[in-house]
Amino acid sequence: MHKLLITGANGFIGSLLRKQLQREVYAVTALTRKEGDINQSATWQSVPACDVVIHLASQTFVPDSWHNPAQFIETSSIGTLQTLEYCRKTGAAMIYISSYLYGNPAVLPIPESAPLFTPNPYALSKKTAEDFCRFYHDCFQVPVTILRPFNLYGEGQNASFLIPMLIDQALNKQAFHVKDLLPKRDYLYISDFINALIACIPLRGFHLFNIGSGISYSVEEIISLLQKIQNTEYPVYSENIKRANEIMNTVADIQLAKQVLQWQPSTSMEEGLRRLLHHNPSANSNS
Predict the structure, then answer these.
(1) How much is the pTM?
(2) Where do the structural domains in the chain lie, given as residue ranges?
């Protein structure tokens, strides 16, 4: 049985991952803020040995990175460095959860070899953490797998993200209000991402995978699906505000993950939205 350590174990991904791993009878140790600050080496001195660290701890809401860039960089970069040091000293492998780092893509779908772009402190912190991962593998032989998830969604996600916001509007507002209807993203349901993550546990060496659905949806298309599921015709209001340096479309090339991990997404966008509508406590009172 693999002994696993999860940092950021109480977050959006971590809380659902822990439940899944416990169902699959892994031995899991959770490392949360309660246990200490992962940026500090002293925290790691009391952490028990494990076979694999799943490193999730991170600041995740991109707009906030502009208000406190140092905190983002410290958590993602220094926290990752301390995690890698623990792995180097104990012989553990690491699975690092990175992010979309490709900017405006030249081709779709986007392969792992596409040029990287760091337009905000959040992306910079993730790119720096990836560099640390590569260095520790190349110089200290720490086994590392990096996952670059595209746009994840699912139960328990912060309400500031697009899909939870639209679910709330679908259930409670009887109208949709958005900044822009046109941008398209590759959205992946959280359970599919967790399955990909678990498939990485046996890997050793160095690996890097895009993890997405391989399909993109615009804001307008997501709203249309929500209307279809609920059989509604609520009005849709767009401010038609184009963000600076907006990326208009992202689609993940997931062929490598399919080949190496024997994984592929199984939840359609419509099915994922349907689950969220029924999972929401407001669903029964508004249906």
Answers:
(1) 0.93
(2) 3-286
